[in-house]
Amino acid sequence: MPVLIREAAEEFYLYLEAERGCSPLTVQAYCSDVEQLCEFLKDEEVLPQVDAVTPKLLRQFLLVMKQAGLAASTRGRRLYALRSLWDFLEKAEMAEANPCRKVSAPKTRQSVLEYLTPEE
Length: 120
Hints:
Blueprint: H1 5-18, H2 24-43, H3 55-67, H4 72-91
Helix pairs in contact: 1-2
């Protein structure tokens, strides 16, 4: 029987709080990231099932976020959250593989630090 992402994610949120000791705000951020993925899947007319998510879909998800103007760091954080979810799903035997492992996080720009001179 197919596993729905939202249902599987509920167990993941419990795991984050109970076993990993994450704060409610962290869990809320993970929840938001999962919801963003589910909305994307809906827009792409893909069933929101764990096994329906592929590396190609995740790359498309990253591209949509980039086109929406989201920073590389934000896109990378969302990918990390999804990777953590699928790692959990693999361990819980709700997913056969983690498609996120085959997708690289967007590169972030290294900003050059500007220092004050002694006169400033």
